[in-house]
Amino acid sequence: MKAVTHSPNAAASPASRWRLRGAAALMGAVLMTTSCWGTGSETPSSAPTIPSSPESSPPPTPPARLTTAWEVTVTGSGPLIGAHEGLVVAPDLATGGSKLRMLNWADGSEVWSVDISGDLTGFERPEKVSDMVSGQVALWAKTSQQRRSLFVYSTADGSLIGRLDEKPEHYLAMAASGAIYEMDTSNEGSVRISRAPSVKEAHTKQWSIDLPEEAREWFWVREHDGVTDFCVDGQAGPVHEYACYLSVHTDDGSPVVKDGVWHRSAWVGNVLVGHKENGPLKGFDQHGKELWTSELQDGYPLGWGDDLVYVTEGTHRSFVGLDPATGKELWRRDWDEGSFPGLVFDRTPSPQDGPLSVFVPSPSIRTGVLDPKTGQVDLVDHQITKAHDVIPTFGGALLIPTGDYYAPTWIALDPGKPGTLWDDVLKNYDTYATLGDRLMASKGDRIALLA
């Protein structure tokens, strides 16, 4: 069975109209678990605020042993959704599942179950919405014609809070706050983006903004520090499995940077770093003031606490450390295509969740941890071949299916360290997913929490 992969905050991963190139196969890929913003201390008002990573809180390390905390059997189970109040199990419509259930995080016992087959009549499959506001759980459902509807349920009793149908030439996204963002692409040459406070108030627009054609993307959003980033999944390239292309102020929708529709962008503290396609890399403060310009070749910026790392594209790959306040090059690490021949994925939401790890699967799996302040990385060859996917999990461990694609052998690695982790418990399941800081496993109708 194919692995369940983790994609931050993604409600869906549809194809883009013009910029989305389609993700390449993982074989020959590079994985870096990284972040796009940090939080921390203040600097004088004359300089942009660059929050620092807490030196007193080193990244966690994987536990030495992993066990099955609990296991339950849920007939007709589909996508698993990590809510604040418990584990929500959506129905698998293809096998006749009809119930939405919530299980207790402590022991897997059923808190409630509700038959939602009436809500999902005419739909083929539900898809989860991650990172929901407390008290709610949301599902996307698709028809055979790829029409989508959003269903939001109460975690108190499973009752339906609201439904929102996606209209033709309109795209919807739901933020972790419960806010609804809608993109109207019905007017040729421009798009209109609106924000509503919740699914129940979806027709109460707090603001609407008009943007040029290049903002036309199916998208997901993340809200942080008073701004909203618009991002798209599946963009090929050496850094992200997604790319962010627009940042606006959450309160009024005004773009952080005038004409700020990017090819790729990332936050490093309160500095927004991005570039137009084939354009120079630029840094801006949170008010849109340009701080610097760098003539680096095309690539991907990524932020890790107070560090800015830029990865260039092309056959000659360079990892470059930059000062986010000035754009000054601090260090450069060059690799040729034979050493690092594929993609780099951005999956970890904060520096405290794990190291900045590098994964090279071919010809055998090699892992290491990149020091974002120096560019130093030492790779360990694990002498394991045929990796199909990588799931970053707690403590910075990497969970990897190898061997037969349909009946894989699962291994877990601590990046940059020899040996494997947790071999005994992994053989009991065939699918894994990270939900927040929890690792879920399943096989058929069996669902387990690993701890």
TrEMBL record:
> Where does the Pyrrolo-quinoline quinone repeat domain start and stop, copy by copy?
279-337
Which Gene3D superfamilies does the entry link to? YVTN repeat-like/Quinoprotein amine dehydrogenase
Record-linked SUPFAM superfamilies: Quinoprotein alcohol dehydrogenase-like
* Skewed-composition ranges (Low complexity): 41-55
Write out the ranges of the annotated region (Disordered): 38-64
Top-level lineage group: Bacteria
UniProt name for this protein: PQQ-binding-like beta-propeller repeat protein
Originating species: Arachnia propionica
Q: Upper lineage ranks?
A: Bacteria, Bacillati, Actinomycetota, Actinomycetes, Propionibacteriales
